[in-house]
Amino acid sequence: MTAPLAVPLPIATPSETGRSAVPRVAVTRLRLTDFRNHAALGLDGDGRHVVLAGENGAGKTNILEALSLLSPGRGLRRARLDEMTRLGATTGWTVFARLDGPDGAIGIGTGLETAGEDEARVRRVRIDGEAARSADDLLDHVRVLWLTPAMDGLFTGPAAERRRFLDRLVLALTPGHGAHVSAFEKAMRGRNRLLEDDRFDLDWLEAIEAQMAELGVAISLARVEAVACLERLIAATRADAPFPHADLALEGEIEALVAAGGPAADAEDAYRERLRDGRRRDKAAGRTLDGPHRADLVVHHGPKAMPAHLSSTGEQKALLLGLVLAHARLVGETCGRAPLLLLDEVAAHLDPRRRAELFDVVEALGSQCWMTGTDASAFAALAGRAEVYEVAGGRVAPARPITG
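^ that's the sequence the OP posted. Answer follows.
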C-alpha cells in the first residue's frame, strides 16, 4: 500500500539569497547523441537557470524532452522510444546528464538500446555507470516537472488528460505510483479479456479482481493525499502568489471511498464487490466501468470561483502555471530537494511584469529552470541569473548575455 505523505506540510522560507532553503539540484553537463535533431550536443554550465532561444523548429523543445527523460516514463511528449532517434541514425539515442545536488555529483545516462534487428528496443538507465533496477531509481536523485504549450488544453480536454497530469504530479511525490498505475492497467486488460470469454476461469477472475482492488485503492489513496497536500500548500501561500490559485477536487467512486476514511482493507473489499457485481455490465460494455481509471481532477479558478474550463484562455494559462509552480514547491518541501523545472515557451504569453514575477518565483523555489523562447530578450529580467544559448538547426552555442 502507498505510504501516506507527511502532514502537516512544512512551508519552507526563503534564505538570505531569496531562494528556498530546500537543497538545489542542477544539471551542469548535458550530452545528447542522435536524439531527435541533435546528432551530438554538449552543454556545460554552472548550475544557473538556462534559457534556450531560437526559431521554431530549431530543436529547443527536443532538449527539454531529453531532460524530461531523467524521470520515469516517456517524457514530456509521451513519444515512443524509436520516435526519439534522429532521422538517419543507425543506432539508438543516448542522453547523459551530470547532476550537482545534495548527493554530490551524479552521472545519469539513459537511452534506447538495440540488441538486434528483430529484438525489442528498450530504454536503459544507468546511475554513475551502474545499471538501475528500474527508471523509478531516478527519483532518488532528481524530480523533473514540466509545462509545455501542449498542456494548454488540460482544463477543456478529456478527463484522461487530467488523470495523466495528476499522476505525473503524484509520481513526483510518491515513487512507485507509476508502477501501480501500470500494473492496474495490465490487470484490468486481463479482466476485460476474461469477461469476453463465456467459459472463463472464475478463480482466475477473482484473483485478478483482488489484485485490481488492492492496486486501485493504492492509486486512489496516493492521488487523494497528493491533492490534499497541494490544497493545503496553496491555501498557505496564495496571498503571496502572483498567479491565480486553483481550487482542486477529485471526482471518482474509488477516490470517494478512500477520502471517506477508514481502513484501506475496507475500501479494497468494497471495490472488489463492485467489480464482482459489475461483471455482466462490464462484459456488455467491453470494458471495466468502475475504478481509478475513471477519476477526474476538477479544477476551479479560485479568485473567481469559476470552473477552469469556463475561464478565458489567458486565465487558464495563468492558472495552470500557478498550479505547476505550487506543485514544484510541494515537491521540494516534501522530498527535500528542489525539482528540475522545464518551461517550454512559457514567457510568450506573459507581459513583462508577469514574466519578472515568474522568474522571481522560480528563483525562490530554489529550482534550476530550463526555459525556451524565440526571443532571448523576453528573459531580460533573468539577467545574471541564467545562461543563454542560441539554438539553430540542431546546434547550440552560447549567446550574448541578456541584460535587464
